[in-house]
Each structure stands twice: as structure tokens, then as C-alpha cells.
């Protein structure tokens, strides 16, 4: 397992190098640069803009710009945000706890909902309850996340006033107090419910279909012939085999939820890296944009590795050599 993990981590290095070249090239192909938005004939001296472009290295050849960027990136220097005027690393460290909190909360909601509905549908296939759950899943698959977010804000925040519609914490809450953490949970629940519910449908169907398939296998017939209670057959024998796909998706899910939070955080005005990513695109904050793209790419590759390792852990028949 350790040798496999080290080999996979080393194999990620050329992939990340290739991704960095693509990210840098796309950033340079975009119109303008991070200083273009600051050009105002009434308030900005064109000589100052030209001086800043020279100072930031925007006039250097592209290979030189890439080399300077990637060497600084490897050393932990992600550059300076042209919009917020602070180091990109500090900016990401400020925003990422909110996104991690949102992603983990959404992931817990996803798995709880998928487990409950998948178990019910798998044990009672083709019943009214199974059809109702399937209908709910199809609706979640069909509705775009931004539409669901807008309806959730209108219904739960404006009409019922159950949740706040923006922010990550009440500005009046004292940091570190019980009210502060309670406010953070209150603010994250609605976007996490939207993000988690949208991801539940496919996992519910995976678990349902696996339970139905495993219930027809020989080991289940043998357990029934021995007089094993039905509840134990489903909760021990069948569930242990059917849970494998959900566990192996865990690595993919985390990276996917962080990526999917871009739209959700923007609509809910939730201050995380998803909202920061969209802001960096609209304001041409290329140092922040490139750093976030590399971060999401790394999380995706790391998620693939975690999924493979979990598959070997939950299924002893799989050997990772």
C-alpha cells in the first residue's frame, strides 16, 4: 500500500507540470492582463501602468514568465493578488476554511441522504416509496444547481426565514464563542443542503441497484436457508458489499464538491475559494486564478489516489501493488 501510494504521488508530478503549462497558457491567452482594469484615463497615469507591467514581468518572454511563476509556485510563493493587494497564499488560507467546512458538511449530508434512501429503495424495490425516491432523484439530476440555490434562498430564507441568505457568520457574533460556531453552522446549512442534495441522486441509485443485485446472489440464498434474520442479511451481508462503491467515490466527491461550490458560494455570497475563483476571473486577477486552478487540479488528482486506496481497504480482494 505504501509503495503504491508513493508511486502514485510521484506519478502526479509530470501531470501537475502539464497542468501548470495549460493553466499558464490559458491565462496568457485571455484578453488583457490584471492591470487592464486599472487603466482609467482620468485617474491613472499610463506611465505608471507601463512601469508596473515591466516590474511584474509582463513584458518578459512567455517561457521566462512561466519559469518565474512555476519556480515561485513550487517554493510556496503564489504571487500577489492584483485585486486584494495581498499575497495569494494568504488570501487562499483566509478563504479555504469556509470552503472546507461547506464541502465536508455537504458531503455528510450527501452520504446520509444517499444511505437512507438507497437502503430503503434497495430493500423495497418497485414500491411507491421507491418510485417516490426515484422521482426525487430525477428532479435533482434535472435541476441546475444555481436554479435550486435561488429557489432555496427564496423559500427558506425569504419566505420561511429559517436560514440566512448570505455570509458565513453573523458579524455581531464574538469569534471563538459558542454563538460564533452556532452562527457558522446556521449559515452553512442552506448552501450545504443544496450542494449535498444535488449530489445525492447518483449515489442513491448506485446503492439501490447494488443492494438489489447482491440480494439475488448465492451467499444471500445460503444465509436465508440457514435461517439468518432478514434484517441481519441486509444490514451485514448485503450492505457490506453494496457500500463499496460509495466508499470508493469518497475521494472523487471531495474534489467535486469543492469545484461545485463555485456556483453555490457565489449565489449564497458565501466567502470561500469558489466565490474567490469567480471573482478572480471577472477581475482578471491571474495570480489568484492560476493558483486556485492548480489547487483544484491537485485536489482532483489526490481524490483519485484516495479513491483507489479506499477501494483496496474496503475490498480485501483488491491488492494495490
Automatic annotation (TrEMBL):
InterPro entries: BPD_transp_1_N, MetI-like, MetI-like_sf. The chain crosses the membrane at residues 9-27, 100-120, 132-157, 188-207, 243-268, 288-314. Its main location: membrane. Coiled coil: none annotated. It is a multi-pass membrane protein. Keywords: Cell membrane, Membrane, Transmembrane, Transmembrane helix, Transport. It is found in: Cell membrane. Residues 96-307 form the ABC transmembrane type-1 domain. Belongs to the binding-protein-dependent transport system permease family. This is Oligopeptide ABC transporter permease. It comes from Planococcus dechangensis.
Amino acid at each position: 500500500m505504501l509503495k503504491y501510494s508513493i508511486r502514485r504521488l510521484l506519478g502526479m508530478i509530470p501531470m501537475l507540470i502539464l497542468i501548470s503549462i495549460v493553466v499558464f497558457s490559458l491565462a496568457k491567452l485571455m484578453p488583457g492582463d490584471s492591470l487592464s482594469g486599472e487603466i482609467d484615463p482620468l485617474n491613472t497615469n499610463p506611465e505608471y501602468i507601463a512601469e508596473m507591467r515591466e516590474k511584474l514581468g509582463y513584458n518578459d518572454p512567455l517561457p521566462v514568465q512561466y519559469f518565474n511563476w512555476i519556480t515561485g509556485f513550487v517554493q510556496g510563493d503564489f504571487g500577489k493578488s492584483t485585486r486584494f493587494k495581498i499575497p495569494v497564499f494568504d488570501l487562499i488560507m483566509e478563504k479555504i476554511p469556509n470552503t472546507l467546512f461547506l464541502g465536508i458538511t455537504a458531503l455528510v449530508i450527501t452520504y446520509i441522504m444517499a444511505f437512507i434512501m438507497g437502503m430503503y429503495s434497495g430493500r423495497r424495490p418497485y414500491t411507491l416509496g421507491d418510485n417516490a425516491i426515484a422521482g426525487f432523484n430525477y428532479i435533482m439530476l434535472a435541476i441546475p444547481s444555481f436554479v435550486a440555490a435561488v429557489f432555496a434562498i427564496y423559500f427558506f430564507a425569504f419566505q420561511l426565514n429559517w436560514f440566512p441568505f448570505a455570509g458565513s457568520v453573523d458579524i455581531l457574533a464574538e469569534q471563538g464563542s459558542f454563538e460564533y460556531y452556532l452562527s457558522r453552522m446556521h449559515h452553512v446549512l442552506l448552501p450545504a443542503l443544496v450542494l449535498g442534495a444535488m449530489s445525492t441522486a447518483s449515489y442513491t441509485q448506485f446503492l439501490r441497484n447494488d443492494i438489489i443485485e447482491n440480494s439475488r446472489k448465492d451467499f444471500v440464498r445460503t444465509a436465508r436457508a440457514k435461517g439468518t434474520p432478514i434484517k441481519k442479511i441486509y444490514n451485514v451481508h448485503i450492505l457490506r458489499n453494496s457500500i463499496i462503491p460509495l466508499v470508493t467515490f469518497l475521494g472523487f466527491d471531495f474534489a467535486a464538491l469543492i469545484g461545485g461550490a463555485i456556483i453555490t458560494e457565489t449565489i449564497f455570497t458565501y466567502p470561500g475559494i469558489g466565490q474567490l475563483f469567480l471573482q478572480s476571473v471577472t477581475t482578471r486577477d491571474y495570480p489568484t486564478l492560476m493558483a486556485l486552478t492548480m489547487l483544484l487540479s491537485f485536489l482532483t488528482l489526490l481524490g483519485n489516489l484516495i479513491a483507489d486506496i479506499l477501494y483496496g481497504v474496503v475490498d480485501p480482494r483488491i491488492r494495490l501493488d
